[in-house]
């Protein structure tokens, strides 16, 4: 906006904020003027008469809008393109199509396969009805058309999109072939060609996945993993060579169960071995409670790969929050790593009778008991590994750590499994309990035969199924360790998983938690963290953004440092029904911490309210790659 008749030159003027510009340098106190969606001026004592609206920035931090580098918003963009749960936390740019999953090739419905539903449902814990509704809306068939479609949406944040490997395999090989064999030479050449063309069309890079507990959700394939995991090393190398040549980024996950395969795979990042470094970002650097060696190995691997000897460009993603995960009965992403829990996830969500049949099967009960009690009693290697926190599972099997959030018996809400188990044992021993009639009936009907904790967990699953929601913290329990990870120059803050696991996790405020932890070190550490959340990811993903110099797109936020310090991540998550999904979702509410979010000069969030145009008027853009 520029009105020469009145002398107004700027749409907005933010006055007197402490400005962290994303460079990593110490902040300065100054004014920021915005006009026509761009930063028009910065300096001290800018003339407020030139602005249509003046915003008081005193006592606030101003900084570039934050990047969320690991999301699964591909589906939500089709029904709620404003992405409000991220915007309210200061996110102005999101990366989509992570972990080899995305919509770049359309619905890909063919020969009875429904890949969007089949691939996303279990991997990202999104109900099939939500996925089908999205797939029904798809009207594009190739990556270029998808970019054109995204640019027509009423976007809130800016988008950075990747080429998803699972969908690329399906597109070239067909669904059944993509989960049963290697590609032919002609098929691999076709994949290379499609990937190169997509990168030329503006895609930032390529995403793959190797976590061994990402399973399909369609019969008869519920015991098969998603297509990307059927790709051998030669296929991954050939496709990442395309990304290397074009200067794009490779998003990956490690082959969790093979140290050798992990090292061989991620050596692909190294310029010393392959002529040119490959920008690589990997999920994830977590301080897993049940296996304390994982985070040490991750940091060591990053240092070696990025050393002068190997010349890598390797960035592990570090989550800024305790890894607090909710389970709906046995349905949770971590349960997929354990066969005795995974079999319950192979049933349809609505098939309670099917799960009950499994839970009552004598053979299954024996297997479940052996799994649940493994390492908890007696002596031997498994017991020693549990005592030393070197177990193979990330899933937490400690009753004291499992807290009930939602339960049909309200008396048990807020209690740990250990506390409820103690009540069950007392009742079965004939001890008198102060209890409601409902609890007495429940104990008699479902828990009277419980002898040990494995019996108790089975009884909980039988009695409540998915009506029981409980949570545990499986990683990142120690704030000092998390802060050290976030401040490590070899890592990159990320892995919020926004838009996925609707009722299992909520890390939408992950970037704010990173800022809060950094603030313990004063302005110098805050400046460093702002850079890690803005300019650094812009560089890794090869897009313009992450800065607020004059002429830049006006993606900027204000943060209230006092409210940030008071933010209590243990009490920000709540359940909310989302009309767009017609389904519940776990969300965060940290209102007051971010008083302003501006995207391309549009105030998307101001005070504690969304602008009425968010999700109805286009604000963000699909960001152009700079390679």
From TrEMBL:
**Keyword hit for Hydrolase:** yes
A GO term for molecular function: hydrolase activity, acting on carbon-nitrogen (but not peptide) bonds, in cyclic amides
Q: Which cofactor does it need?
A: Zn(2+)
**Which keywords appear in this protein's UniProt record, sorted alphabetically?**
Hydrolase
Q: Where is the Amidohydrolase-related domain?
A: 516-601
* Alphabetical list of Pfam families matching this protein: Amidohydro_1 (PF01979)
- InterPro entries, per database record: Amidohydro-rel, Metal-dep_hydrolase_composite, Metal_Hydrolase, Metallo-dep_Hydrolases_sf
GO CC, sorted alphabetically, is: cytosol
This chain belongs to which protein, by name?
Amidohydrolase family protein
The organism's lineage is: Bacteria, Pseudomonadati, Pseudomonadota, Gammaproteobacteria, Pseudomonadales
